[in-house]
Design goal:
The chain has 2 domains: about 5-15 and about 25-90, Phosphorylase Kinase, domain 1 (2-Layer Sandwich); about 100-340, Aminoglycoside 3'-phosphotransferase, Chain: A, domain 2 (Alpha-Beta Complex). The chain contains 11 helices and 11 strands. It has helices spanning about 5-15, 55-70, 100-105, 110-120, 135-155, 160-180, 215-225, 235-250, 255-285, 295-305, 315-325; strands at about 25, 35-40, 45-50, 75-80, 85-90, 180-185, 195, 205, 210-215, 230, 340. A 5-stranded antiparallel sheet has the order 1-2-3-5-4, with helices on both faces. Strands 6-9 form a two-stranded antiparallel ribbon. The chain is globular and about 65 Å long. The two termini are about 25 Å apart.
C-alpha cells in the first residue's frame, strides 16, 4: 500500500476506535501481499491491509475465532471490512520467537512445543469446515518444486525419466502423510510466526490463515526443521520423542515411535521441496530476493533426509546428479548455517 493510500484505512480505523483518523506506521512486509501498520495513537492495536483478491481473509477470521474459542493464543480481532480487506487486531509486539533462539537455545523452543499438543487436541467437529490437506493439496505444493525451483530458478528441464522418478517419490511421501494421525495444521508454524509477549515469554500464533486438517507431524517439522534456524540433531530427536509420547502414542494410531520419526522426516521432505519452489517463486515473481539466502539450509534438510532412507536413495542420487551442478553455480549457494544458528 503506497503512503497516499493510507488515508481511507486511517479514517476507517478512526471510526472503529471512535476517534479522528489515526497515524499509521508501516511494518516490514511478509511473504504474502498483506501489509501491517502500527497505530501511533493506539499502540495496543495493529491494522492490516490484506487484499481480498489474493488473501484468504475470511479463513483468517474463521480460524482466529476457532482458536480463540479453544483458548489458544491468537490476537484479538476488533473489526473487519471484508470488501476492502481491512482488519483491526490486537498488536502482539515486534518480537518473534526467533529473537530468543541465539541467547536461550533449546529452552526457547519449549513454549512452542507445548502449544502443539493443544492444537492437536482441537475438537474434530470444530474443524469440520476447514479444508483437508489431501492428495490434491499436497501434490499441488510438490509441483512448485519442479516448476519454480528446478525449471525457473535452476534452468533444468525435466525429461520423462525425471518426472517418473519424482512421481514415484511423491507417491511415497503422500502415502506417509496419509498413514499418520490428522488434526489441525497451522501450516507455517515456525520462529517468525510465533510472537513473544512484551513481558514474559508467553507465545501467540500469527499467519495461520492457510490452516487446515492434515498430518500431525507437519507443524512439528516446521518448527524443528525451521527454514530460518538450524537445530542440533539431539534437540530435534528429543522433541520428536516428546511429541510422540504426548500426542501420537495416546491417539488411535498403530505408529511406533520409529514409524512416526519416519513420517516426521518424510513430511519434512514434502515441506522442504515445496519451500524450495516457494522461495524461488518469491524471488523470481515477487522480487523478494532475500528468500534465496534461506535456500542452503532447506537444501541441507532435503539432502539429509534423502540420504537417510533406502526408499529415498534413488531420489537422492538423482538430486546430486541432475541438480547439484546447477545449484553450485548459483550466487546464493553456500554452506548451510551450523546447528544453533540461522537467519
Amino acid at each position: 500500500m503506497h503512503p497516499t493510500q493510507h488515508q481511507p484505512l486511517s479514517s476507517w480505523l478512526g471510526r472503529q476506535l471512535g476517534s479522528a483518523p489515526v497515524t499509521l506506521r508501516p511494518l516490514p512486509g511478509d511473504a504474502g501481499q498483506r501489509r501491517y501498520f502500527e497505530l501511533a495513537e493506539q499502540p495496543a492495536r495493529l491494522a492490516a491491509a490484506s487484499p481480498p483478491a489474493s488473501e484468504p481473509n475470511r479463513a483468517f477470521v474463521d480460524i482466529t475465532l476457532l482458536l480463540a474459542a479453544a483458548g489458544l493464543p491468537v490476537a484479538k480481532l476488533y473489526a473487519v471490512d471484508f470488501a476492502r480487506g481491512w482488519l483491526l487486531l490486537e498488536h502482539l509486539g515486534r518480537r518473534p520467537l526467533r529473537a530468543l533462539y541465539a541467547d536461550r537455545g533449546a529452552a526457547a523452543l519449549q513454549p512452542a512445543l507445548a502449544l502443539l499438543p493443544k492444537l492437536a487436541a482441537l475438537d474434530g467437529a470444530a474443524l469440520g469446515a476447514l479444508p483437508r490437506y489431501d492428495r490434491s493439496a499436497l501434490l499441488a505444493e510438490l509441483a512448485l518444486f519442479g516448476d519454480w525451483f528446478v525449471g525457473a530458478l535452476l534452468g533444468v528441464e525435466l525429461n520423462d525419466d525425471d518426472r517418473a522418478l519424482l512421481d514415484e517419490l511423491f507417491e511415497t511421501l503422500l502415502a506417509s502423510a496419509a498413514a499418520q494421525p490428522h488434526g489441525f495444521v497451522h501450516r507455517d508454524y515456525h520462529c517468525r510466526n510465533l510472537m513473544v509477549a512484551d513481558r514474559g515469554e508467553a507465545l501467540a500464533m500469527i499467519d495461520y490463515q492457510d490452516g487446515l486438517v492434515g498430518p500431525l507431524s507437519y507443524d512439528l517439522v516446521s518448527l524443528l526443521k525451521d527454514c530460518y534456524w538450524h537445530w542440533p540433531a539431539a534437540e530435534v530427536d528429543r522433541a520428536v520423542t516428546g511429541y510422540y509420547q504426548a500426542v501420537i502414542a495416546t491417539a488411535d494410531s498403530a505408529l511406533s515411535e520409529a514409524g512416526f520419526r519416519r513420517c516426521f522426516d518424510w513430511m519434512g521432505l514434502q515441506r522442504h521441496l515445496k519451500v524450495l519452489g516457494i522461495f524461488a517463486r518469491l524471488s523470481l515473481r515477487d522480487g523478494k530476493h532475500g528468500y534465496l539466502d534461506d535456500l542452503p539450509l532447506v537444501l541441507h534438510y532435503t539432502c539429509q533426509v534423502a540420504s537417510s532412507y533406502p526408499q529415498l536413495a534413488q531420489f537422492g542420487a538423482w538430486f546430486e546428479r541432475r541438480l547439484m551442478p546447477q545449484i553450485e553455480r548459483q550466487a546464493w549457494f553456500a554452506a548451510p548455517p551450523s546447528p544453533g544458528s540461522g537467519r
